[in-house]
Design brief:
Order of helices and strands: HHEHEHEEEHEHEHEE
CATH topology: Rossmann fold
Radius of gyration: 20 Å
Structural class: alpha/beta
Helix content: 40-55%
CATH architecture: 3-Layer(aba) Sandwich
CATH class: Alpha Beta
Distance between the termini: 54 Å
Largest sheet: 7 strands, mixed
Shape: globular
Number of helices: 7
CATH superfamily: Vaccinia Virus protein VP39
Number of domains: 1
Length: about 240
């Protein structure tokens, strides 16, 4: 009996040490990737807006910027404005592209708008204040950006090459970011990418699982270092 207990304890300690080692390794990798991303992003643009818990990680923003530059995206739609909006606009300005960014918080949208003007990026981005409203689909109910307003803005825009989903906040309803694909799907280009932030959260991974059933795109969940799910349809370079 004593031998069995000792063996059980040893296995438990070994498992705890292994898990702790894996966690430390992941944390170091995350810090290194974000540090490299910040170095690159800092050379691209230096906004005054602080990095907060709400901000996409630098490595996640770099994933978006890299996809734009490497795959020549020219029409980007973003759900949830922030620091990412400034970097996306800067990348698109380098190749004549355009961004439409939907934001539900008017004060925040105006704050980001002021920085866009300060950097002279107004020609590359259109910030749209879209309040959250009830949206129903297949007997499910959500709070999402006003669908009519989103569709009105996309009807006159070129086909969407890249969809970046970093809003609304998960606090508004379950699977709050799910509606992005069903609503914007008719406006997607033949070749496109979808990037969903915060994939370390279970709800976001469930959202991706729902999307996989509805569109013909290949999603890769990188929820360790970058914290995004990167979905692609059509030939393009991996970032």
């Amino acid at each position: 009996m004593r031998t069995t207990v000792k063996a059980y304890v040893r296995r438990g300690v070994a498992r705890l040490l292994r898990d702790a080692t894996n966690e430390i390794t992941w944390e170091l990798q995350r810090v290194q990737e974000n540090s490299k991303a910040l170095d690159y992003l800092g050379r691209l643009l230096r906004p005054l807006e602080p990095w907060t818990a709400w901000t996409m990680h630098p490595s996640a923003i770099l994933t978006v910027v890299s996809d734009i530059l490497i795959n020549g995206r020219s029409m980007v739609v973003e759900c949830g404005a922030g620091l990412s909006t400034l970097y996306i606009a800067k990348a698109l300005s380098m190749q004549g592209g355009r961004l439409i960014s939907f934001e539900s918080d008017l004060a925040w949208e105006e704050r980001i708008g002021r920085q866009i003007e300060e950097f002279g990026l107004g020609a590359s981005v259109e910030l749209v204040h879209a309040e959250l409203s009830e949206w129903r689909f297949q007997e499910r109910q959500y709070l999402w950006y006003t669908e009519k307003l989103v569709r009105e803005n996309l009807e006159s825009a070129p086909p969407v090459d890249l969809l970046v989903v970093d809003g609304p906040s998960r606090s508004v309803c379950r699977h709050a970011r799910y509606p992005a694909v069903p609503v914007i799907r008719p406006y997607l280009n033949d070749k496109y990418a979808i990037i969903l932030d915060d994939i370390h959260r279970r709800e976001e991974r469930e959202v991706v699982d729902l999307w996989r059933k509805e569109i013909d795109a290949t999603f890769v969940n990188d929820y360790r270092a970058r914290g995004v799910s990167y979905g692609r349809h059509g030939a393009c370079y991996d970032v």
